[in-house]
């Protein structure tokens, strides 16, 4: 029992220290935000994180070339082992959730892997949910407000507000209440 308790205390202490280190190095971190251990920001001064966010362990925020800006809104959650590419700017809206092992890319090389990267800006809408192991490719520049990306999806184009997408390539499979063609027709 004691070793288990000691491990739990050590884990909490390690995460509290990690949060304080990131608060000292990142451009802006809102109150109530927790940033766990083993989170890597390529250019911390280009990162702004809102209030009450949860940034789990194993997050890699990297860029191929000069990094763009990363803005994370209030109440957002990024789960373990997510990779965020900052070659272009990336904005994650309030209360957005990015599930574990997902990849968000903001650049591509066309058909030549050795060419200079082309950067794209990307916005993840507020209240959106990106399911685990999803890949959001660079040509998808917007995941709409309240959109849902199904687990394991490969998103190659923009996702409208309130859309539920799934598959590879991801296609619209439904709409959240109050969104989509039926909602537009009734207003």
From TrEMBL:
GO terms for cellular component: cytosol. The keyword Acyltransferase applies. GO terms for molecular function: O-acyltransferase activity. InterPro entries: Hexapep, Hexapeptide_acetyltransf. Keywords: Acyltransferase, Transferase. CDD domains: LbH_MAT_like. The keyword Ion transport does not apply. It holds the Pfam family Hexapep_2. Belongs to the transferase hexapeptide repeat family. This is Acyltransferase. It comes from Erythrobacter crassostreae.
